[in-house]
Structures are given as structure tokens and as C-alpha cells.
User: Which sequence fits this backbone?
């Protein structure tokens, strides 16, 4: 892998991949959290419909945000020429 | 390399990153001291409990919740204004968008901390993740704010990539840092296209998210049965107030940095005039909402509701109430309606008065309802303590500090957008204008 | 399932405050000190609200003892973000001190101001240690608390009834405030059991509930004060 300011390799590339993975870590943890809340609401019979409705709105947007970032990251790296 | 940069027509925009004068260090030292002082008092509150505040049995929410609503409100204008201006392809947006987006990201981080400061047991805050109930409006807030924070940070970052690449290529400072963040952007056509597409998606996503955040915050109050809170217009009322205070903050920040970094060539009077039209519109909208809110209450004359309203307009909170009306409505409408007063000093006065007025509005909404419980229990007046004042000052100082530090790392005005405006703006506007104009009908022969 | 409720006869209540004191001792309620009480941070679960009507000298004074109303449709439990306050299987509104994060949303939502917040860590003087009730959890700094209808007494009564292999009787379970009332103004029992005295009292023409129109369905009834 060539190491230049425009196409970094090594440590900086590792950092870049790390930062893009972090947003996915965030998305996965949000999904885990919301799934936990859904199971809790079923277990306690406590506002299950509201829980499901809110989750259905929140989760796609989080995923979309992470996807857009990944798209930009991959796209910028691929189309440097 | 540096010589080359100095010849750039937009060197002024790079300068804050390359050089710092003494004023900057003094400002950082002062703001840092205020933040540290607030931190010390917060640690004291952690040790002794919320007893160090002025809260009591009936007034259980005070400065922390007021500031929470206020800061989240201020965070509103940024991303929203920037997204709306970009979507509507307003050419004058170019020097404004970046600052607006930075306000959002920073103030949202500060505002989002306030509910945690307000907790009696901050050590148990993770219970929200283990045992949260999505039925509680507080959980709606947690999800909406974390979503908005993620969205607005991404929306701040993506349009900044070309600028970071510029910094990487043309300066020598923090080279590795900029290399890391620029993600290999070199400015090919395909790369530009990718960024544009990403920005369009983000703009469309961020507008409804922004509106939902403040609506949800108003639900904290309107979902309860308390008189003065249980109102259906609270959602739009809060959103309007949020954009109102946010626009005012944006204007103040723009006026300050224009002076501090000599950006007069970029932020011209016309930008302030256009934005102040928005401020005027929102002042009128705010007046309309406030009028509807109180008229329905007074006309209905429900005794509990009336007690709260009387407490606000002629009782103990009357000075704050009328001050709020003057600050939010009278002053901005008078200043912004006359062309003579609508210059930068006038706009600055109007904006500062709106910021004060909107803070008072949050106070007027939260405290009087709590001081007038339904049952005639004795309610002690709420007097904020030194801790609460200091944490308020700390919040404001943290905002200024983070903004200053940001300006030392990234350009406060989007350089690539300015350059693009120079290169393509005129042509694009010309073409667009031609597409609006009715076609000149060809002269028909033989009529 | 029993529906535990209370009837308070305002004709009989003299406002003596015995219920308030009985509650303090029964539920280990800390004394916050004069200064804090002046600032409006007293922690009493049972509170006597005094209503004045008319101008001096024709004043009519009504004392209204106010425990938690244990609403059947409680506004406070809906807003709790962590399930720390909830309607339990006995129909009482429970409060979990070890889960509460201290956001005080339930206090803002309660239309009856029945909830109390521990602004400081409770200090209990040495001399109070002897009267401390081991059945009731001590609260810690930063959590919300409120009247539980002496729920610990219900648990005890249930255990006893099961042990003696019989049904729960009316006199088995009485909160401390009801037990202590010298004027016999408070009556406690199962609102749905016709054998209990409360079930007849709530059908009295004088019976009413506070802020009934909010739809909270409180389980504490008052018998209206009448002029004699």
C-alpha cells in the first residue's frame, strides 16, 4: 500500500478504518439497546406498541447515517483518479 | 508552500488556523477558568447531592432543565438553517452554513449533558439503558437527542472534507491529523459527486430529525397533567422558539467572529440583513403562538390554568414575563422593521435581546407551573443557588471555548464553497434565473 | 384481588398531626432540620393541607390529610424512564429506591404533590436509632420517595394469613396513620369488599376524591366537611 498524504497507508489508514467502525459500533449498540427495551416492554407488558413504533422510526435513521458515512469513505478512496 | 498560500484570495480564512494572537490565549484562559469553576461546583454537587441547588418540594425542576431546553433550542437553528438554505440553493448561504452547523454540534453536546447534571443519582444513569421504558418522554428525549447529535455531527463533517483536504495539501500544521480526517479526498469529479449525493441525503434526513427533537422536548412538559403545561401547541411552539433563539445565536456568533477574525469581506451586511428577516419572521411567529397559548387559557378561564397564568402575568413572575415579551417581541420587531435600524449594531442588539428573552421564556414555562401545584400545599419560591448560576455560566463558557478551539482547527467559513461560488455561482444563478423566467413567445406571423 | 383504599372523614379530622408523626416513625422518615424544612424540603409522606375559605372573622378551616392516593391510573408511573415507580400487583404505586435515577419527572407529573425528593443524604440522629423500623428500607440521597400505604404491613399480614391458612381480615392490614388517628377520621380497607367499612363509606353522599376530573382514579376518598 502506498503511503502518501492523499492515500495514506499504515497507521493513519488504520485510524480511518477505526473511526468508520466506531460509527457502526454506535449503531449496533443502539440496536442492542432498543432490542433490550422491546424485550423488557414485552416482559413487563408495558407500552409494547409505543416501544415498537419508536424503534421502527429510530433504527433506520441511525443505520442510514452510518451507511452514508461508509459510502463517503469507500467512495472517496475508490475514485481518486 | 506558505508563500503560495499567502497569495490565495481566501488567505483570510486560513489565517485563524495558522496564527494565534494574544487575545485568543487570554480568551481561552478566561473561558477555561469559568469552565473549571463550574466543574468544581458540580463535583461539590456530586458529593453533597442536589441539596446545593435552590430546588424544593414543589419546584423540582429549575435552572438545569431550563438550560437544557434553552441550549437544545439554540442548537436548532444551525443545522436546520444550513440544510434549508442548501436545499433551496440560496447562494448567500455559502459563508454561513459552517458556523451554523458548528453551533448545533457544540451546543447539543452541552445541552445534552444537562439532564445528567440534573439527576439525583447520576451514578445510575446507565439504568436508562438497562431498564429504560420507551413510554417515558424522557426516553424519547434520549433517543431523539442522540440521533440528532449523530446526524448533525455527520452533517458537519461531510461538507468539511474538501476543506480538510485543502488544509492537508496547503499547510504544514497537524499534517497527520488532516490526512486522517480528509479520507483521501483529492477533488476528482466522482469524489465531488459522492459528497454531493451524501450531503443531499443528510439534508433531507436532518430536517425532520431536528424538528422532532424539540417537539419531543416539549412533550416532557405537555404529556403531564400540570396546568400551564398540558397544551397541544407546545410542540410547534417549542420548535418555533428553538429556531428563533438559534437564529439569534447564529447572528451573534457571526458578528463576533467577523470582528475577531476580520471576515468583513465574507460576511457582508447583506448576509446579516437576510438572516435578520428570518429573525423578524420568527419574532412574529413567536408572538402569534404566545398570543394563542395565553388567549385560549384566559378565555377558557379554568381555575387551575388561570392561577398559573395570573402568577405569570400579574403575580410573582410578572417582571420576567413582561421582560420576555419586550425582549422577544417588542425590541426585535421595532429594530428589524426599520431599514435605518437594521444595521449590524441594531441586529446585534435585537439578537442578544432575543437570546435573553428566549431563556426567560423557558423559565416562564417551567417554574410557574411547578410553583402552583393543584392542591394548596405550601410552595416555597425558587431561588437558584450559586451552583446553578455557575453551571449556567460554565455551559455558556464551554460553548465559547469549544467554538474558539474549533476555529483553530478548521476554517469557520467553508473555503471550498466560497471558491465554488466564485467559479460557478454567477453562471449557475444566471442559468437558474433564465429557467424561472417565462419564455418570450415567438412573434406569430399573420396575426 | 383486593383494592386497598382509604376514606378520610373531614368532619372528624381535627388536624392534630398524629397521622403525620405515626408515619414518620413507621417509615423511618428523616428529620431534615429546620433550615431545610423552611426551604420547603421536608420529607413527610403524610402531609396535612389546610384550606381556608372566607374572610376573617368568618373563616372556615378544613384540614385535609394527604397520603399518596395510589391512583389506579397514576400519572407518575407513566413518565418514569426506568420503571422505578410502577403499579404493583396489590394496586399500590410502588417506588424502587435502588433503581430510581432521581430525574424527578414523577414529581413534576404527580398532580397531588405526593412525592418527595432526598436533596441530601438523610441524617438520622443517634437517639432515633431505637425507634427505627427494620421493615422499611432507608432511602438514600438523590432518590424520590412517597407514601406506600405501609406496604410492608400488607406483606406481613399476607404472610400471617397464609401461615394461619385463612383469608385476609379487615383488621389485619392498617397503615400506621389510620391506626394512630385519635378522632377515628380515617378508615382503611378493601374498596371492593362489601364486608369492609370503606366499601359502604365511599357510597356516602359526602364522598368525593380530589381532582377526580383528571381521571387518575385515586383510591383515597374524602367525606366532605359539612357545616353544623
Assistant:
Amino acid at each position: 500500500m502506498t503511503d502518501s498524504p492523499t492515500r495514506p497507508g499504515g497507521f493513519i489508514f488504520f485510524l480511518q478504518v477505526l473511526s468508520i467502525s466506531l460509527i457502526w459500533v454506535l449503531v449496533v449498540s443502539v440496536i442492542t439497546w432498543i432490542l433490550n427495551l422491546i424485550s423488557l416492554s414485552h416482559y413487563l407488558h408495558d407500552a409494547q406498541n409505543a416501544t415498537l413504533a419508536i424503534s421502527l422510526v429510530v433504527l433506520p435513521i441511525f443505520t442510514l447515517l452510518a451507511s452514508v458515512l461508509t459510502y463517503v469513505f469507500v467512495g472517496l478512496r475508490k475514485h481518486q483518479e | 508552500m506558505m508563500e503560495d498560500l499567502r497569495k490565495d484570495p481566501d488567505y483570510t480564512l486560513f489565517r485563524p488556523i495558522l496564527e494565534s494572537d494574544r487575545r485568543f490565549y487570554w480568551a481561552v484562559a478566561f473561558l477555561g477558568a469559568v469552565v473549571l469553576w463550574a466543574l468544581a461546583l458540580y463535583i461539590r454537587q456530586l458529593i453533597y447531592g442536589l441539596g446545593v441547588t435552590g430546588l424544593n418540594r414543589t419546584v423540582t425542576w429549575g435552572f438545569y432543565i431550563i438550560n437544557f431546553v434553552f441550549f437544545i433550542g439554540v442548537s436548532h437553528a444551525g443545522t436546520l438553517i444550513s440544510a434549508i438554505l442548501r436545499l433551496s440553493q440560496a447562494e448567500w448561504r455559502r459563508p454561513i452554513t459552517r458556523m451554523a452547523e458548528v453551533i448545533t454540534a457544540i451546543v447539543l453536546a452541552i445541552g445534552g449533558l444537562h439532564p445528567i447534571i440534573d439527576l439525583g443519582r447520576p451514578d445510575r444513569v446507565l439504568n436508562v439503558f438497562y431498564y429504560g421504558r420507551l413510554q417515558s418522554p424522557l426516553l424519547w428525549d434520549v433517543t431523539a437527542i442522540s440521533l440528532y447529535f449523530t446526524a448533525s455531527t455527520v452533517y458537519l463533517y461531510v461538507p468539511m472534507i474538501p476543506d480538510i483536504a485543502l488544509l492537508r495539501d496547503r499547510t504544514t500544521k497537524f499534517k497527520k491529523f488532516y490526512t486522517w480526517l480528509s479520507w483521501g479526498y483529492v477533488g476528482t469529479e466522482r469524489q465531488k459527486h459522492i459528497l454531493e449525493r451524501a450531503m443531499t441525503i443528510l439534508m433531507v434526513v436532518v430536517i425532520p430529525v431536528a424538528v422532532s427533537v424539540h417537539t419531543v422536548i416539549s412533550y416532557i412538559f405537555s404529556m403531564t397533567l400540570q396546568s400551564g403545561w398540558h397544551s397541544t401547541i407546545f410542540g410547534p411552539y417549542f420548535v418555533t422558539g428553538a429556531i428563533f433563539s438559534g437564529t439569534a445565536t447564529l447572528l451573534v456568533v457571526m458578528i463576533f467572529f467577523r470582528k475577531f477574525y476580520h471576515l468583513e469581506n465574507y460576511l457582508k451586511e447583506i448576509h446579516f440583513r437576510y438572516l435578520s428577516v428570518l429573525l423578524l419572521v420568527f419574532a412574529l411567529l413567536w408572538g402569534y403562538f404566545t398570543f394563542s397559548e395565553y388567549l385560549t387559557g384566559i378565555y377558557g378561564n379554568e381555575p387551575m390554568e388561570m392561577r398559573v397564568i395570573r402568577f405569570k402575568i400579574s403575580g410573582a413572575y410578572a417582571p420576567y414575563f413582561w421582560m420576555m415579551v419586550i425582549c422577544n417581541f417588542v425590541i426585535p420587531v421595532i429594530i428589524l422593521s426599520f431599514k435605518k435600524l437594521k444595521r449590524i449594531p441594531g441586529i446585534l442588539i435585537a439578537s442578544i435581546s432575543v437570546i435573553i428573552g428566549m431563556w426567560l421564556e423557558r423559565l416562564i414555562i417551567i417554574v410557574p407551573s411547578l410553583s402552583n401545584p393543584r392542591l394548596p400545599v405550601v410552595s416555597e419560591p425558587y431561588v437558584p443557588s450559586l451552583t446553578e448560576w455557575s453551571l449556567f455560566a460554565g455551559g455558556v463558557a464551554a460553548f465559547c471555548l469549544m467554538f474558539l478551539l474549533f476555529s483553530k482547527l478548521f476554517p469557520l467559513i467553508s473555503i471550498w464553497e466560497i471558491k465554488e461560488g466564485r467559479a460557478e455561482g454567477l453562471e449557475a444563478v444566471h442559468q437558474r434565473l433564465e429557467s424561472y423566467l417565462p419564455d418570450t413567445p415567438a412573434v406569430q406571423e399573420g396575426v | 384481588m383486593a383494592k386497598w383504599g382509604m376514606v378520610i372523614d373531614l368532619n372528624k379530622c381535627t388536624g392534630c398531626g398524629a397521622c403525620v408523626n405515626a408515619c414518620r416513625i413507621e417509615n423511618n422518615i428523616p428529620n431534615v432540620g429546620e433550615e431545610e424544612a423552611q426551604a420547603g424540603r421536608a420529607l413527610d409522606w403524610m402531609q396535612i393541607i389546610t384550606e381556608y375559605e372566607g374572610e376573617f372573622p368568618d373563616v372556615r378551616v378544613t384540614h385535609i390529610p394527604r397520603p399518596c392516593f395510589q391512583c389506579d391510573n397514576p400519572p407518575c408511573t407513566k413518565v418514569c424512564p426506568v420503571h422505578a415507580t410502577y403499579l404493583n400487583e396489590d394496586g399500590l404505586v410502588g417506588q424502587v429506591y435502588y433503581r430510581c435515577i432521581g430525574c424527578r419527572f414523577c414529581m413534576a407529573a404527580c398532580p397531588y404533590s405526593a412525592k418527595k425528593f432526598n436533596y441530601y443524604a438523610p441524617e438520622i440522629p443517634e437517639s432515633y436509632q431505637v425507634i427505627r423500623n427494620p421493615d422499611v428500607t432507608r432511602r438514600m440521597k438523590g432518590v424520590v420517595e412517597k407514601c406506600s400505604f405501609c406496604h410492608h404491613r400488607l406483606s406481613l399480614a399476607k404472610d400471617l394469613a397464609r401461615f394461619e391458612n385463612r383469608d385476609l381480615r379487615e383488621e389485619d392490614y392498617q397503615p400506621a396513620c389510620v391506626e394512630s388517628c385519635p378522632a377515628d377520621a380515617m378508615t382503611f380497607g378493601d374498596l371492593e369488599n362489601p364486608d369492609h367499612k370503606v366499601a359502604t363509606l365511599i357510597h356516602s353522599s359526602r364522598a368525593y376524591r380530589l381532582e377526580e376530573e383528571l381521571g387518575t382514579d385515586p383510591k383515597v376518598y374524602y367525606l366532605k366537611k359539612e357545616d353544623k
Q: What stands out?
A: The longest strand of chain C covers residues 47-53.
